[in-house]
């Protein structure tokens, strides 16, 4: 078997099982919205969006990372708790703390901020790369 034959994806013969729902591939909106830069005006628009949303990202990032750091600290403390508390009272207290911790960790507002932070990070990286690619083609050396 040649190297070329080894690299080809395997084709499966047969049918798709009944009830199979293929998972859609979700493309981030910024990939289509920010294609390769063609003009200086496009570069200026991309730069303005970058600067505007970078401020939001920085603010969100600080907030999300502070909460994640707290969660890490709590995780460490929780590992130190006794696995078999001596009294019912202690057991109930640990149980309440665990419930509250899980509730906070799965708080929709926090999860939304975390997701937005990740989205902005990826979007800003994409825009920055587009600007750098354009600058390279134009042989410019602007700092972003």
From TrEMBL:
Example GO BP: bicellular tight junction assembly
Residue ranges of coiled coil: none
Superkingdom, natural source: Eukaryota
Pfam short name (any one): Occludin_ELL
GO CC annotation terms, alphabetical: apical plasma membrane; bicellular tight junction; cytoplasmic vesicle
InterPro entries: ELL/occludin, Occludin_ELL
Record-annotated membrane-spanning stretches: none
Signal peptide annotation: none
Chain ranges of the OCEL domain: 28-139
Entry similarity comment: Belongs to the ELL/occludin family.
Name under which the protein is recorded: MARVEL domain containing 2
Annotated organism of origin: Bubo bubo
